[in-house]
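#lab-general

N.A. 3:47 PM
ok so I finally got the sequence cleaned up, no stray characters, all 297 residues accounted for. can someone with queue access submit it? mine expired

B.Y. 3:52 PM
send it over

N.A. 3:53 PM
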Amino acid sequence: MKSIEGTFLQFQVGMREVSPAQWARELDAMRAAKMHTIILQWTQADSKNLFEPPDPFPTLMDLAHQRGMKVIFGLRHDNRWWREWGNAEYLREEAKESVTLAREVHRRYGKHSAFAGFYIPYELWDGSFTEAQVENLRELLRRIGSACRQIAPGKPVLLAPFFAGLLSPERFEQMWLKLLEGRPVDVIALQDGVGARGWDDQMEERVTPYFAAMQRACRQRGVKLWCDLECFRLTNANPSRPQFAPASAERVIRQLRVVSPYVERVVIFDFYHYMSPYRGEAHKALYEGYLEAMGKG
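B.Y. 4:20 PM
back already:
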């Protein structure tokens, strides 16, 4: 069974006020759990740069370096994505803006020893896309991915898609064979969907077929497959305004068992909000339960 090697960090504006001492404490807890990679979900949210003064990221990177950790930088998050993804002109503009941001991120942080690559925040899913739409989405990934590789040679480019059971596993595999043609990204961190969709008791039938399908597609295209494991649970039944809380350690261990045969690495979404032992009793229970289960406590 794989262990958790890293975490996404959904960095929100209010988190700019987190002190260096608080960040040090968080990273110490991550390292105690053998995590070594932080993936910033984004550095720009709806055109607002999160590195505007006071820039929180140099401190985070220094603390990561001191602990032997690496930081992967997410690029541009834009809420229009969910309604404009089928608009080819929008995708071209987003690719252009993302590349501009990647250059700025690399100018600021690329020489730091903790810098470890880029993450593309646009989330693709198992939709019934037309051939033209698939090609437009692949071109979005190609433009951003190729630019990131030129900006930071040797550093990986990540993408974290999801699935909702809208396509069969077979069609899901075929879609990703097309999207990954030409290897536009280096790593797919496939969301397992267990937390967001309440699949606590349906993991084998809901999750396994899609990870197997993505594994086949990634192997054929030379792309690494990770799992973006959701360490939270759904607490209400309102799909338009879902609410979440930390999952149990027992459920997270079951998730690890389900995905481990298919992936090279597992990262979680996300430590700070759902697993930090300093953020609440349920968070602490998940953290300590995981350490105990993995023999690290």
